Amino acid sequence: MKNLDIKKLLVFIAIIAVIALAVIFGSKQFFGEKKPSEEETKKVEELVTTYFGNLTYGSSTNYMGREKLYAKDKITVSDLNLNNIFNTSMKYATSNGLNINVANGVINEINRSKKYGDVSECLFYNAEGIKQAAKELFGIELNEESSINEFEYLYDFIYIYEYDLYIVKRNDVTDLSSPEYGIDYKFVKTTKKEKDIKTTIAVAYTYKTGNTRTFAKDSKGENIVAENSEKFPEDKINEFTKYTITLTQTDNGNYIFKSIEKVK
Questions:
Q1: Which of 172, 138, 177, 166 is nearest to 58 (CA)?
Q2: In this structure, how many other beta carbons lie within 10 angstroms of the beta carbon of residue 42?
Q3: pLDDT string in tens for the chain (264-residue length)
Q4: How many other β-carbons are positioned within 10 Å of the β-carbon of residue 63?
Q5: How far apart are CA 80 and CA 74, in angstroms?
Q6: Rounded Cα distance, 72 and 70, in Å
Q7: Are 162 and 106 in contact (CB under 8 A)?
Q8: CA dist., res. 151 & res. 84, Å (int)
Q9: Measuring CA to CA, which residue among 42, 40, 121, 127 is closest to residue 85?
């Protein structure tokens, strides 16, 4: 009889333990991080691949400045300079059909004035589309200002108040970029908590030789993880430094950049 009571007690304890674990796990899922939908994950990964993973692109370095994004423990919107904002916003506006068109008559008039030098080889952008892009990508209101002679940056962004437009003009900075150097990454995981979506990537610095690449942990290429590889060595993904990019979903459905942080 006593043995039977002990067995019942053990069964009862086991049931209670299972219920407790279920409650704890359910609470974590409800209050903590969740797995976003397939659609959300796809959208966020596209934004990272096309825009947020290349925020510092445009500087005179081997990697065209892309490595600057991964040089600090954490970077937020306030840490980005105007060139980063302009360059990324112009790319986004061009790809998403925002209003960036400038009338040929306006371009001809600016060129004739010679006020900004020879602008025949420059790119012109209607500021309306660029401002909208900056708001959709970074949640900020762009001030009407230029960015000229930014350290190491290859282009100047000149704002012309009379026409509410931007000119992108190549400056005198020597271009030290090389097509052999690149940055590649793989998505490790993507999670969601309330309006924040965090996606973690493993970052590799690559050097191309023929049809293959060398994959290293550092921008100097001293800590090599894989050689003579045609694609990212996924079997060695844990050997690369990882970074978490956090985006926040707005009420209108856009995902704006919040931060990129080194995983320690």
A1: 177
A2: 12
A3: 555 566 665 656 666 765 655 545 554 444 577 889 999 999 999 999 999 999 999 999 999 999 999 999 999 999 999 999 999 999 999 999 999 999 999 999 999 999 999 898 999 999 999 999 999 999 999 998 999 999 899 999 999 999 999 999 999 999 999 999 999 999 999 999 999 999 999 999 999 999 999 999 999 999 999 999 999 999 999 999 999 999 999 988 899 999 999 998
A4: 21
A5: 11
A6: 6
A7: no
A8: 12
A9: 127
What distance in Å separates the CA atoms of residue 80 and residue 140, rounded to the nearest whole number?
Answer: 12
User: 255-262 and 241-249: which strand pairing?
Assistant: antiparallel
Helix 82-95 crosses helix 127-138 at what angle (to 10 degrees)? 100
Q: Which residues pair with 160 in a beta bridge?
A: 165
The position carrying tokens 């659609």 is 39
- Tokens at residue 75, please? 């970077």
What one-character-per-residue DSSP string does the chain give? -HHHHHHHHHHHHHHHHHHHHHHHHHHHHHHS-BPPPHHHHHHHHHHHHHTGGGTTTTBSSTTTTGGGGGSSSEEEGGGS-HHHHHHHHHHHHHHTT-S----HHHHHHHHHH-TTS--TT-EEEEHHHHHHHHHHHHS-PPPS--B-S-TTBSEEEEEETTTTEEEEEE-S------TTEEEEEEEEEEEEETTEEEEEEEEEEEEEETTEEEEESSTTS-SEEEEEESS--GGGGGGSEEEEEEEEE-TTS-EEEEEEEE--
Amino acid identity for residue 157 in this structure: F
How does DSSP assign 75-86, residue by residue? EEGGGS-HHHHH
